[in-house]
Design brief:
Shape: elongated
Order of helices and strands: HHHHHHHHHHHHHH
Number of domains: 2
Subcellular location: Membrane
Distance between the termini: 55 Å
Organism: Micromonospora endolithica
InterPro entries: Memb_transporter_dom
Number of helices: 14
Protein name: Aromatic acid exporter family protein
Low-confidence stretches: 1-9
CATH class of the largest domain: Mainly Alpha
Structural class: mainly alpha
Number of strands: 0
CATH topology of the largest domain: Methane Monooxygenase Hydroxylase, Chain G, domain 1
GO cellular component, one term: membrane
Amino acid sequence: MPFAAETRVPAALTGRVRDAGRNSYRRLQTYLIVAVQAGLAAALSWVIAREVLGTPEPTFAPAAAVGVIAAALGNRTRRTVELIVGVIVGIAAGDLLILAIGTGPWQTGVIVFLAVTVAAVVRGAGALMTQAGGTAVLVATLTPTAPDLELPRTLNALVGGVVGLLVVLVLAPLNPLRTVRRVADSALDVFAREMTASAEALARGDARAAEAVLDRMRAAEPELDRLGEVVGAAEEVVRFSPVRWRRRRALKAYRRGVEHMDRAFRNSRALVRRIGSTLRDEEPVPADLPAAIEHYGEAVRLLHREFLEAREPVRARERVLTAVREAGEACRQDMGFSGTIVVSQLRTVANDLLRATGVPRDEARRMVRRAAAGY
């Protein structure tokens, strides 16, 4: 027994290391384009600020360009405005205070404090306050060696912001569908796979397996969060980048579905939790109930496939309604308290998934009710 326990620990550790490596590789695939964009934007903005504007210290141009790209994947246009405003606030606060109190360690602390305070007063978000504080630090430390740069600093910030947008929207825009596919393949595959695993646990009467499914679903939640982030960034690209306009239809379907998919995933966790209760209480499990949950997982796979093919997700809708019908058949048989709640939860997630396919709210409810009644 001790030997078996010792062998299980390294095996579990190896599995965690393998999962961490796989997740790191997926993130690298997704965000490598961001590193390329940041490097290109920094180089271009430095050249423009130094060679075109003639600024002897073009520090703020590449800093602003990288900030535009690295601040967030989505909402870059809004964050660019925040970043440039933050730079201007930091420059203004730094230059005015340096004239009054000079430079030094305590002066730098005061300058940063007041710059961030001003940004907060104007209701700036985190990006604006961070940029204001960072810019104030640069002003306080660079001024003794490079004075009289108030106007060039502001121009450099504007150049960096514009170059950053130019790179991400025109020169090196991400491939929206490829990026979304990389994240969605992983996130939705986990979703569908865990639904299949929960159906198998229910069919076998394995409460521990159901608990393991629930643990894995909790751990997988960041995958769906990242999907929403990446879809938002991709949608911004196809909205503003001429070379990606033709992808708008496919991305529109994903944007419409991501919110409801996220809700379906969270509600599915409640479903799996109740499956565990059903099994621990040794309630009767009609064969139709595991089959219904398996069909629900298949519907997730079909929805992803039809989104990528830019087709109306008809097959996914049909599979969802099949799951609801089978759950309804199970409910009309001998079931316990937790089993009936499993059926109720499945109808809830079915409604979420129908909404993800583009069905209006009232129509989705009507379809679920009719399918549950056996029509």
